[in-house]
Amino acid sequence: MLWPVENQSVSPVFVGRADEVQILNDALARAEAGGISQAFGTGGEPQALLLGGEAGVGKTRLVEEFANRAARAGAVVALGGCVEIGADGLPFAPFSTALRALRHELPAELAAAAAGQEEELARLLPELGETGSQRHDENGMARLFELTARLLERVSADRTVVLVLEDLHWADASTRHLLAYLLRTLRTGRLVVLATYRSDDIHRRHPLRPLLAELDRLRTVRRIELARFSRAEVGRQMAGILAAEPDPAQVDEIFERSDGNAFFVEELAVAAHEGCCTGLTDSLRDLLLVRVEALPESAQRVARIVAEGGSTVEYRLLAAVARLAEDDLLEALRAAVNANILSAAPGGDGYRFRHSLVREAVSDDLLPGERSRLNRAYAEALQADPSLVPADERVMRLASYWYHAHDPAKALPAVLDASVTARRRHAYSEQLRLLERAMELWDSAPEDVRATLRPVDYTEVYPPCGCDPATTPLRYLDLMAEAAVAGRLCGERERALKITKRALHLLDGEADPLRAAWFWIQRSRLVQAQARGDGWQEIGTAQELVRGLPPSEVHADVLATAAAWAMVRAPGPDAMTAAERAVEYARMVGASDIELNARLTLGVLLVDAGEIETGLAQMYEVMEQALPLGLPSVLGRSHINLASVLEGIGRSKDAVGILREGLRLTQDRGLRDAEAWIWANLAEALISLGHWDDGAEAALAAQRVGQVAKPRGCAAHCLAQIALARGHLDEAARHLAEGRLAYGTHDPMPQNDLPLSRLAIALAAAEGRIPDARAELTRVLDAGFQPGTQRYAWPLLLAAATAEADARDLPAADEGRAGILERLFEAVKTLTTDAPIWHAHDQWVRAELHRAEGRAPLDLWSSVVTAFEQLQRPYDLARVRHRLAETLVTAGGEDDRASAEELLRLAHAVADHLGARPLADEVASLARRARLPLGPDEPRPTADTLGLTSRERDVLRLVTVGRTNRQIAEELFISPKTASVHVSNILAKLGVAGRGEAAALAHRMGLFRTEDGERVGGAA
Fold it and tell me: Model-level pTM?
């Protein structure tokens, strides 16, 4: 069909751009070498570059030069361009085209990389198969993006791939979102991503502008701005075009006229060569049209048709619209191609303008009636023969053609069909735009046309207007429901909020409680997502609307939403009832995903209420049932919530197993937000098990993965917990602030707030700010602990009780201590102890409260240690062993010293292994004061090792046999005052409070011999 064409206006010599070519070549070399990533065996270090420049400055020529060099070096180059159809971009068009090219070049590699995820990836590359039919959710687009990133990493693991995305200024919102995601998350692979855009098109309100600003902040993205040619470079370009050295005066004239723009240099040089005056017009647009107007009339007409058809027009479609005899059409095309107005499209199946500037000039020159007539001709041709364009573009292009033909009767059905296609591709931004366009067309479309329309898709559990969707016409309210969900899923929540507000206003005068309840639930989700509140008022309104109505999907969804909301904010009997009814209603109407989610909620609430085994059985069953059904939201949530519950009842090892499996599932399915939650929960479980470094790594992974803030808050809490236990107080304070920022203040939840309050209390106590610790505790106690929050309340009470016990000898802490201790004792009585770990915390808190009162209940501390020896909490066990050893040393008998020594040795070993320096120092200090060794090779202390002088040893010997200061003075021939000074020094060095303790210590250590030769105290 196509033939070789003489490109007389294109310089055969590549001019200038040495610096830019070097940057691109360096990026290619780094991608191939791999750098850090290759050192870890991951096969490459992806490179990302943005190439900007004004229209005509030479971006495409530079990309072609680089692509040719890369291909010669063995790389696979996949080119994809953003497609403009009228004013509309095709969703994911550059990625679809590039992936199609990769599939052509590396069919086996791409098939292997996509294995198991063909249903999802078919949204970008339909050749992979049919797309999945699961219900859409907030994770759908992120899941597709993650799987695309994984696909590219796998394809480029062993082969260098250059992915070129041209004309980002035309990119649709979904393409922009996907590109941003890739450039943020690509970590491995021998991959170069090069994207181009027109910088002069990026005005202040251009949608690409925020993306460029975001990418500028990424250290992994290099931005190149392509400058205009210098005068010397213009001379070399003209020499290449003319195949001769140009006249210097002519170079000066064209350089001044073109201002160094490569495309304008071409046009002016050819015009001058063909005898046209370079000063023909002051309008560059007119300059661009000069050679078009020099074409035969038939070629000009074909050029106008191609200009309105989009970036590229297929030959058969062009023939159908032009309605010329084939010979005449080919002759017209030959003339346009030889004049370098049109060129063959990549793949040889159609035509496009050689430069978009010329296309825009020709399109702008069309008359209004001419433009709509051409769009109608395209639409009629495509409707008559859908095979004229690729299948994945057909519906979107038909909708665009009919819309720009200004025919509402034909445009409305086509736009609705296109919105369904966009939804199925997870292109929710384009779906929203199309639905808004449908709402715009609604009143203009004839009534008989609207009567033939049916609900275009099922929006979650939204009830189609009427009893039978197959026979009931589509209503405007149905469009608003679709648009509200699309806005929520694509992040355009403000637009979605406005749509729900309008919908509820329309429903004010109608007796339609189910539909109104559905819109209120949408508003609740949007309000929470926008940090406008906790969403409970909207949920409560929806509950009132469905109260007393028969079971339905909407009713079940309202109940399930209310129960899930209460589970993390106000667990209790009302939440349990809502969850049970949601399960019942969902079963009755066959809504399996609502049922499974409601059962998960019910399982958590049962565990919180003390029915631990019943609740766990429920949750394990849901997890097993969700796997074969492949429900993404249930899969992620089942692993997250079950592991969280297991951690909360002290079964951390079981939780880690669930979370490891959850990581595999979420990573395979691209559930990035769910993966972030799993990393955060894994960090918590690993810290409990004493794997602090692994826990810190998991917390950092939670902060890197996903886009929601709350997992980052949980991760910050975990990092603060480790930092505090290791004595890094500044670091702990920083992470605590990060956690508060991530959680925000608009939607308080006990699972977020109570752990942060516990950290705040412990940090204030560690820094000696007892009033601040008490203020935080008082704030929490005044609010009270809600039912089911004991897993977070027990550690908080423990932190407060420990702070009071540690501060018992501080005079500044005396005031108010009695009241705080009384409130703590009262709070302990309100919490349940159904799980072994809650029971252990109950005993520990009581023991610390007794310590704060100056008592040392040996039996209580022994029971605390026994309780924690049954759990998987090595750090907590080390802490209580230290306290039991302290009690044995101070209140126990001589026979208890061996037990205290073993407890201290075990506690010190754990603290040293974990890097818990404060605990290790406390244990070592106690061991020194008690003269107990911490290791088998550590010598027992003697009088010499205690730092006593010979005279002080003599005085201590007499103290041990009960001598007074006067008697010591007489025996040692010193004054009583000097004897008193020696005794004071001895007490200080031994760390004891009085003479009796000093004597007892000397006896225990066997420092002196009696007259019969035995050591005092009998120690060896």
Answer: 0.77
